[in-house]
Specification:
The protein has 323 residues and is an alpha/beta fold. The protein folds into 2 domains: 203 residues, Alpha-Beta Complex (Spore Coat Polysaccharide Biosynthesis Protein SpsA, Chain A), CATH 3.90.550; 94 residues, no CATH class. The protein is 42% helix and 20% strand. The protein has 11 helices and 10 strands. Strands 1, 2, 3, 4, 5, 6, 7, 8, 9 and 10 form a 10-stranded mixed beta sheet that branches. Strand 1, helix 1 and strand 2 form a beta-alpha-beta unit. Helix 5 runs antiparallel to helix 6, helix 8 runs antiparallel to helix 9 and helix 8 crosses helix 11. It is globular, with a radius of gyration of 21 Å.
């Protein structure tokens, strides 16, 4: 009798979506193949690329059996990540963007945090590289164990870590069924808080194990170069922040006030930036945000989380004085 070969289940599934990044994708792939932790599968999703990105992925799959490639019609980031999750077999999930790189020990570092602290999510720090200059992004040498509510608040604060899925390792059960929206461009802000709300223990040790490369084609380039902000981008963010505040207020009522503050803080910040950078195509949204903030004036003024500079900006909004 022929005994079929037992299927080996990898510990970690690494997922990477690529679209028209032939100049970067090899660098990203090789940074994962060079990991000191080797018990992983690497799922590459070619999101309808029109350049050689898909072919590059296929060539790597021929060289390393841990790689599998999914070719799909072009969709948003969320649809691609969902496709990867649908094929994933590992107990833990990690993500890398196709224009970034991971340090050789990133997977080992994140997995060790998961095991040592019995965590549902582990988080490391990163470098941000712009024009060849690297600066630390969320870097500190201290281990933090956070419960659900504290971890979600820190996610909203964006002081210890941000909503991006790279730099994190997650138990696959947190991402089942595939949670990413198949609409819109910014799946991280619409998904991360829901995933964190389902986690009971989060381990954070922000030594830099990942490098995010900034360039003009980055999906979120406007977050650094504010003058790139567009009407449709701002609409998507405003909707996401409003939905997030509402959802968290019901799911985690203990942090309701902070969840609402995070929406106000974003609107106050956007009002200031639209004025300062004279972003004319967002003037209509500026007036809408002002109207919302003025309507919530009493609650905003009494909010314990409002920072001093935000109070100054808010007072100018109330007086309709351009900043």
């Amino acid at each position: 009798m022929i005994i079929p070969k037992q299927k080996i289940i990898p510990v970690i599934s690494v997922i990477m979506l690529t679209y028209n990044r032939e100049q970067y994708v090899s660098r990203a792939i090789e940074s994962i193949l060079n990991q000191t932790f080797t018990d992983f599968e690497f799922i590459l999703i070619n999101n309808g690329s029109e350049d050689n990105s898909g072919e590059i992925c296929d060539n790597y799959a021929k060289m390393d059996s841990r790689i599998s490639v999914i070719h799909k019609e072009k969709g948003n980031i969320g649809s691609g990540r969902n496709a990867g999750l649908g094929a994933a077999k590992g107990e833990y999930i990690a993500f890398i963007d196709d224009d970034d790189t991971a340090e050789p020990d990133m997977l080992a570092f994140l997995y060790d945090l998961i095991i040592k602290y019995n965590a549902d999510i582990s988080i490391c720090g990163s470098w941000r590289s712009t024009d060849g200059v690297s600066t630390p992004k969320y870097v500190f040498d201290e281990v933090l164990e956070l419960g659900t509510e504290q971890a979600v608040v820190e996610l909203l604060k964006r002081e210890l870590y941000n909503v991006g899925f790279p730099c994190k390792m997650l138990r696959r059960k947190l991402l089942s069924p595939p949670p990413f929206s198949v609409q819109g461009r910014y799946d991280d802000i619409t998904t991360a808080y829901k995933v964190f709300s389902a986690a009971q223990n989060i381990a954070v040790h922000c030594l830099p194990k990942y490098t995010a490369y900034r360039h003009e084609k980055n999906n979120s380039a406007f977050s650094v170069e504010h003058q790139l902000l567009k009407h449709d981008i701002l609409n998507e963010y405003l909707t996401a922040y409003r939905n997030r505040a509402s959802w968290l207020s019901k799911k985690l009522p203990a942090i309701k006030e902070y969840a609402q503050y995070s929406e106000w803080s974003f609107m106050i910040s956007m009002c200031e930036k639209i004025e300062r950078y004279e972003i004319t195509e967002c003037r209509g949204q500026l007036e809408q945000m002002r109207a919302t903030l003025i309507n919530d004036k009493k609650a905003i003024v009494s909010c314990q989380y409002l920072k001093d500079f935000e109070r100054i900006w808010f007072e100018k909004i109330l007086r309709y004085i351009c900043i």
